[in-house]
Design a protein that fits this description.
The structure holds 2 protein chains of 2 kinds. By secondary structure, chain A is mostly helical. The longest helix of chain A is centred in the C-terminal third of the chain and has 29 residues. Chain B starts with 10 loop residues before the first helix and ends with a helix. The model of chain B has no long low-confidence stretch (mean pLDDT 83). Classes of the chains: A mainly alpha, B mainly alpha. At the A-B interface, helix 1, helix 3 and helix 7 of A face helix 4, helix 5, helix 6, helix 8 and helix 9 of B.
């Protein structure tokens, strides 16, 4: 009985946290986007910071669920993707690979965070963010772009180079945030709890 | 909260959300097989007619594809340079038509109706003993968190300015803002549990 109450209590806490990270990703989409003139105006957005954070902080399952929740709300017609995009149309656009990759990227971040339990939070979070938020995410993004545009994988991959500097910055931010939260509110770093 | 839904009572608004969703999936699946311009042109014309049938503002709604232009240009140029401009045209026009069709559903279907269709689609889960209630709860919590979060960040920013902070170093606010947001979520979770939790929701 006690177990039942305990597990029931954690469901609400989990839902509250998952919804929070989904809302955070939406809020990050409202930040002004940076457009690089050279890349034909493809925006660099802060939203993938939210993807890394969700995975690193929530762990693999809850992190992936937060991203799924965000995508469902976008699909329902909320213009929450950077630049005010939303609705089902975004799943027909060339960047769909990234959207599908988000839950998997968060899951990878969370898994790696769990594997790196033994080392301090800052380096662990940075490694997790690089492998999940860049390697795994770009993998999905490149395959999606190449399928949608009939480009070769190598060509699609070369397009991604413009995103690297921004994403490197997000990796460091993810590490710093995870470390600060670990100091200030360790129970909130669910991937280590 | 703003939405991409457009209030109206056109014939398209009156169709069931689930039917529109299935139709969209079918058209998208079939269109992947298109390898010549003719079927795409027919589909594009049909799509334009559908937009026009929504009344005066209908055709204006087609501007939803505007933010896509850098991608579309890149795709076309790539195929042109690799010696197949026709394939480029095919890929680009297919994408424009599909985005327009999907947007047609988004602008003519209320979010609550789509959510209900989705919950209906998730019903097989309940045979496995998984309830769709936590999902519905999470959706509504996320939507209500968003303005709260923005308010919270704004508060942090104001406090930073009051302490004499400038534009530089503003990124330092992210972590403390994050902690206060996490505390908020913890309180919300506890309050939910105290009110009977997921199972208490009707």
């Amino acid at each position: 009985m006690v177990f039942l109450i305990m597990s029931n209590r954690s469901i609400e806490r989990d839902i509250a946290q998952i919804a929070l990270y989904a809302a955070l990703i939406a809020a990050l989409g409202l930040l002004p986007k940076i457009s690089i003139p050279l890349a034909g105006g493809i925006p660099i957005t802060a939203q993938s910071l939210g993807v890394m954070l969700a995975g690193v902080m929530l762990g693999p399952v809850r992190g992936a669920l937060a991203l799924l929740l965000f995508l469902v709300v976008v699909a329902l017609g909320m213009p929450l993707l950077a630049g005010g995009r939303g609705g089902l149309g975004v799943f027909a656009a060339p960047s769909v690979g990234f959207l599908i990759g988000w839950p998997f990227a968060a899951m990878a971040c969370g898994l790696i965070m769990k594997l790196l339990r033994g080392i301090p939070v800052f380096p662990a979070a940075c490694i997790a963010a690089v492998l999940g938020g860049i390697v795994v995410l770009y993998g999905f993004g490149i395959v999606g772009l190449s399928m949608k545009t009939e480009m070769s994988l190598a060509k699609a991959a070369s397009v991604m180079v413009v995103y690297l500097p921004g994403d490197a910055l997000k990796v460091v931010l993810t590490g710093l945030i995870a470390q600060t939260v670990w100091r200030g509110m360790p129970q909130a770093l669910l991937s280590r709890a | 909260m703003i939405s991409l839904y457009r209030t109206g009572s056109t014939w398209l608004h009156r169709q069931a959300a689930g039917h529109k969703l299935i139709a969209l999936c079918l058209i998208s699946a079939v269109s992947y097989k298109f390898s010549t311009m003719l079927p795409i042109l027919v589909l594009a014309l049909t799509t334009a007619l559908l937009y026009a049938s929504l009344g005066q503002r209908g055709l204006l709604e087609m501007r939803v594809v505007k933010p896509l232009w850098p991608w579309l240009l890149m795709m076309f140029v790539f195929h042109w340079l690799s010696g197949d401009p026709l394939l480029g045209l095919l890929v680009v026009s297919k994408m424009v038509v599909l985005v327009l069709l999907a947007n047609l559903l988004t602008l003519s279907t209320r979010q609550s109706d789509l959510l209900a269709a989705l919950e209906y689609g998730l019903r097989p889960l309940s045979w496995l003993g998984v309830s769709s209630r936590p999902f519905a709860l999470a959706v509504s919590m996320m939507i209500s968190y968003l303005p709260v979060l923005l308010h919270l960040f704004e508060q942090q920013r104001q406090a930073w300015i009051a302490r004499g902070g400038g534009r530089r170093g503003r990124w330092k606010l992210v972590a403390p803002a994050m902690i206060s947001a996490l505390k908020l979520a913890d309180h919300a979770g506890e309050a939910l549990a105290a009110r009977g939790g997921v199972r208490g929701l009707r």
